[in-house]
Amino acid sequence: MTIAEERTAGCPVDHGGGRCPVTDIDLWDFDMFQRQDHHEVLARLRETDPGIHWIDEGDKGSGYWAVTRHDHLKEVNRRADVFSSAHSGTQMRDPETRLNVSGIETDQIMIDMDPPRHTRYRKLVNRGFTPRMINLLEDYLQNRTDIILDAVTEQGRCDFVSDISAELPLQAIAEMMGIPIEDRASVFDWTNALVGGEDPDFVKSREDTLQAAADLFNYSHRLQTERRSTPSDDIVTTLLSADIDGQALSEIEFDMFFLLLCVAGNETTRNSITRGMMAFFDFGEQWEKFVADPDRHMETAVEEILRWATPVIYFRRQALSDHDIGGVKIAEGDKVIIWHMAANRDPRAFEDPWRFDIERTPNDHVSFGGGGPHYCLGASLARMEIRIMFREIARRMPDIRLAGDPAYLRSNFIGGVKRLPVAYTPSPSYRTAPLHRLGAAAGASGTVGYGGQTERPQDPK
Questions:
Q1: CA–CA dist 91, 25 (Å, integer)
Q2: What are the domain boundaries of the chain?
Q3: Is residue 443 a contact partner of residue 186, using CB atoms and an 8 Å limit?
Q4: How far apart are CA 321 and CA 310, in angstroms?
Q5: H or E segment at 420?
Q6: DSSP string computed for 290-314
Q7: Mean pLDDT across the stretch 49-72?
Q8: Left (φ > 0), alpha (ψ -120 to 50) or beta: where does 107 sit?
Q9: Which residue of 258, 269, 275, 292 could cross-link 309, Cys pair, CB 3.0 to 4.6 Å?
Q10: pLDDT digits (tens, 9 = 90+) for 312-323
């Protein structure tokens, strides 16, 4: 019997003649994810030995191996020579089906590439994500955070998602790419449509998703045209002029990078900040500890927020050759789904994983991918945004609290929160003056770099 035949015979674990406890699992149940019931299902997969199970998708797909344990997931991520991102992309939906939904082909976006093509592409786009480039953003993002909170502090209540957590990632992308700030609402809507394809709040039909992708690509083309004719001090110009071994980004490669940055840089950080705040609501003693001394707890708190949030729930890989993980034989051509959410709650890797602990150390979470060539390019930027935002919330809204029920995204891919009503004691606005932006998007400001130094406002008396 071949490995593939053994796999299709059922679960590889001998249950003593009893029924496999994971045969009824359906991770295509978007309503289950919206209800937040998926944690229990993923835990059943993870805690039933050996933690890797074959899931029959019926008419929804070819079937796949569900990888749910921390060590197993890291092995898949680090063996890009065996587990391909390019073969069938990184989405659970099979490529021929996915094309009918988004219109985006596999192997055209960086997360759907394998080395050596991925290596070349990453070297090119990394020009915009060097430590120097990211550090130059900090003053500007601090200024934007002050302005974001200025807009809501006097009200005493707001929607945390639309008014706070969504704003900073959007404005960071706008600054990095030289996008006019007033266009950030369009980027917000387009990315919501792309990741919320199964949520009727964002998408009513397949045409809505296709239109969002088309609008985002058209916007990218306009950016390219403007920067080629008028270079500026932003990532667009940097990427268009980047040259590695005599090669630069093609037009379609730039479009795909722009799409990836808008989705990954917006949806993931937004939901990390939102779910981090929700964790503080659920573990009030942790918020009190953080508010009392944010600087002392900041480094470990940011990592725990990332572990807890796990904004990208899964990624797909395709086996290029037979491979054994944890005693399970995976056959060449098999579909493999790595569940980051399950791995970040693995008791083998984290003591008391369902406790939100801002002093947790070590904290080897896999929210950025767990190593390997696909480790998140924007990890430093995400950490910076989370740090700046929570420091200022602790400073200006120390008694922030939940003021209604959260609304969750209907998705098995992004752990999204659509709405989160909050309340807090009103306080005066700082009336923060905005820093100058980079020249291209905001007019000829004459500034060089991301914003420059500015004096922070003091607490109003």
A1: 18
A2: 3-442
A3: no
A4: 29
A5: none
A6: HHH-HHHHHHHHHHHHHHHH-SB-E
A7: 94
A8: left
A9: 275
A10: 999 999 999 999
CB 145 within 8 A of CB 388: yes
Q: What is the pLDDT of residues 355-392, one digit of tens each?
A: 999 999 999 999 999 888 888 988 999 999 999 999 99
Q: What residue spans of 88-229 are helical by DSSP H?
A: 95-102, 117-125, 131-136, 138-153, 160, 167-177, 184-195, 206-229
Alpha carbons 163 and 183: distance in angstroms, whole number: 16
Output the pTM of the full model: 0.89
Tokens standing for 440? 């291209």
Cα-flanking dihedrals φ and ψ of residue 375, to 5°? -55, 135
Identify which of 432, 446, 389 has the alpha carbon closest to the alpha carbon of residue 143. Answer: 432
The neighbouring-strand residues paired with 336 are 65, 317
Alpha helices in 249-408 (DSSP H): 251-263, 269-282, 284-292, 294-309, 340-343, 379-396
Kindly report the number of other CB atoms within 10 A of residue 445's CB atom: 16
pLDDT digits (tens, 9 = 90+) for 82-130: 999 999 999 998 886 544 444 455 567 888 999 988 888 788 777 777 7
Helix (H, G, I), strand (E, B), or coil: what is residue 161?
Answer: helix
Architecture of the domain defined by 3-442: Orthogonal Bundle (1.10)
